[in-house]
Amino acid sequence: MTSEPPISESKDAKLDPIMNELDNPNLNELPASAIEAAREHREQIIPRLIAAIEQATKRARMGEIVEENGHFFALYLLTEFEAK
Fold it and tell me: What total of structural domains would you count in the chain?
């Protein structure tokens, strides 16, 4: 009998810290560890990277200043991954 891993150990839960680090508005240096982790979870993180760009675009269109960095790194990573 197999059981599913707890939520905290699921693949999606592993992506949360990566996205949080990429989205940090107070970065003083390149989030190299998060970028490398995103590369390691390429297929799983692509939808989240796309969502980060969509959300930042939506907020900007509403007149908000988007101070987080996730959309910037998402564009970089999606280009590297040649995601469609």
Answer: 1
> How far is 73 from 23, CA to CA, in rounded Å?
8
* Beta-carbon contacts of residue 36 (< 8 Å; ≥ 6 apart): none
**Residue 5: how many other CB atoms lie within 10 Å:** 10
Q: For the chain, what is the HEC assignment?
A: CCCCCCHHHCHHHHHHHHHHHHHCCCCCCCCHHHHHHHHHCHHHHHHHHHHHHHHHHHHHHCCCCCCCCHHHHHHHHHHHHCCC
- Mean local confidence (pLDDT), 64-73: 96
| Euclidean distance between CA atoms 72 and 60, whole angstroms | 13
Range of the domain at 62: 43-84
How much is the pTM? 0.83
